[in-house]
Amino acid sequence: MSTAIVTGQPVPGSSLEGDLRALGFDVRPVPDPADAAAALAGVPGDQRVAVVDAGFVGHVHALRLGLTDPRFPASAIPGAVTAQPAARPALEEAVKEAGTVPDAVADRLAAAGTDVHRPELGELVAAVPADPQARNEVRQSVAAVDDEAIRLRTAVKARDGFFTTYCISPYSRYIARWCARRGLTPNQVTTASLLTALIAAGCAATGTRIGFVAAGVLLLFSFVLDCTDGQLARYSLQYSTLGAWLDATFDRAKEYAYYAGLALGAARASGGGDDVWALALGAMVLQTCRHVVDFSFNEANHDATANTSPTAALSDKLDSVGWTVWVRRMIVLPIGERWALIALFTAFTTPRITFYMLLIGCALAACYTTAGRVLRSLTRRAHRTDRAAEALADLADSGPIARAVARTGRSAAAPVVAALGGVAVVTVSALTDFGSVWPVVAAAVYCVTSGLAVARPLKGALDWLVPPVFRASEYLTILVLAARADVNGALPAAFGLVAAVAYHHYDTVYRIRGGTGAPPQWLVRATGGHDGRTLVVAVLAALLGNTDFTVALTVCAVFVALVVLAESISFWVASARRGAPAVHDEGEPA
Predict the structure, then answer these.
(1) pLDDT recorded at residue 317
(2) Strand pairing report for 49-53 and 126-127
(3) Interatomic CA distance for residues 421 and 435, integer angstroms
(4) CA distances (Å), 469 to each of 114, 415, 450, 455, 466, in order?
């Protein structure tokens, strides 16, 4: 429950108290300003409290934006100010010093160092008229603007892909409103989207044409629900740390489970079947590395100063021209375009063709985005902070071996050193016979170069490339060694291992984005870090036969999955229970 203290003399005919109750507030009128401090102190400390001027006139959605958003400790609009439990002491002090006028209280809060969120209202009206004539004019302004239409419009993500903007959002926003009016939560819709995608993967796994068609249709419906959950969160301001994690994690689970379903379906298809597990694993590796490039670049430049470049200026100029905006958004193959491509080719072609098209599209998108970011990094003069270096170090996921090397060595050109080791271990694994000792030697060299690459803080212009290089090196080594084993089950086991490790890497990103810090070091040590896992897989390939290697990969996949999932779920559930600050991560453009 939240409490709203309405200060000042009630205004005849005002709907303010009813509007506040509709938003979930327990309304306490305080006509005498001298009683406001006592009324504020009487509200339980674990509740949100708002101070609202009795003369407030405005849209209900303006009040909703200003008083109910869970992401901010304090928030204000003209005529109203609110504080969550963490900012309650500051609010009470501000009321004592500035009186009961909400605008003055908000200014005092900000002056005292409290971060006061002031939402952009746009056409929405929020005001405290000084006299009856002004009140009538403001009421006319309120009547002239449909706040429900604005609420629906702003429920859609501001920056989305072409497919989502023109093929999904025109109706998914109404599904979001339908869900809100029936009390459904974004997390429930997110779960429904996951279940729908898993059913789609099951349909694809049947290997029949009708199964492939059903899989494509269900995958698109899962994406509709995926858009709906975010729109529902924005429509009803139901943001949460747990919800942001579920939304981001389930997106990856849906896509990669669907890849596995396609691979299973290809093997079971009539006419002899087709083994496309290598393509499925390659698609997962490529897509994961694309995301790590995005994450690393953004974290490296999150708070960089003097962050300008001719490339960035050109990008901004292109974004000012309508048709180039949509072309650029489609080139990067965001989740909407990507899932539409997968669904279409699943329904009308074969899994092999679907994976070929996906790999080609993702490869072109990766080249485009990476080249642009490299150019931006080389042409700007920016000072990167310790926070950025720490984030990149966390994303690197260095294990005990690499960390030990890092403490004893020094290296410049971190991306080059990391790439040399990665190319060496992948190339040697691909060119030598299965069971050879040379991949083990190359993996040992990779552990050394990985340590040298992170021996100094990652503050160089291109140091953000180090984490994606590590991801590509580890994942491709697993893929190549499983393919060289040339035995049934090796590639599916490798798919499972990479999926489990990728989950750990995504989870690291979501924690950093949510401001909760990277996973604990004991987890990194327990799973070996990227360097340790690469060395272990190489050793297993050298010591075990083909079939035993498959079993070992499966055991590794199960172990990593159990450890990282148990720790991750425990962490996020505990964060939600202890009231971690609510977030809403827009994530990958839909």
Answers:
(1) 59
(2) unpaired
(3) 20
(4) 40, 8, 10, 16, 5
Q: Above 70 in pLDDT, residue 320?
A: no
CA angle 364, 418, 401 (to 5 degrees): 135
pLDDT band at 378 (very low <50, low <70, confident <90, very high): confident
Residue among 583, 454, 554, 571 at smallest CA distance from 504: 571
CA distance 286 to 471: 10
pLDDT band at 303 (very low <50, low <70, confident <90, very high): low
Residue 16: partners with Cβ closer than 8 Å, 6 or more residues away? 6, 52, 54, 56
Whether the CB-CB separation of 66 and 80 falls below 8 Å is answered with yes
Confidence label for 309 from pLDDT (cuts 50, 70 and 90): low
Distance from chain centroid for Cα 159:
14
What separation, in Å, do the N-terminal and C-terminal C-alpha atoms of the chain show? 34
Handedness of CA 33, 38, 42, 48 (dihedral sign): positive
Residues found in the chain: 590
Sole residue written with tokens 């969550």 = 84
What pairs with residue 75 in β-bridges? 82, 117
Phi, psi of 53 (to 5 degrees): -70, 130
Helix axes 529-543, 546-577, angle to 10 degrees: 160
Instruction: Indicate if the pLDDT at residue 231 is higher than 80.
Output: yes
d(CA 402, CA 498): 20
Task: Give the integer Cα–Cα distance in Å for 479 and 497.
Answer: 10
Token pair in block for residue 353:
């063709």
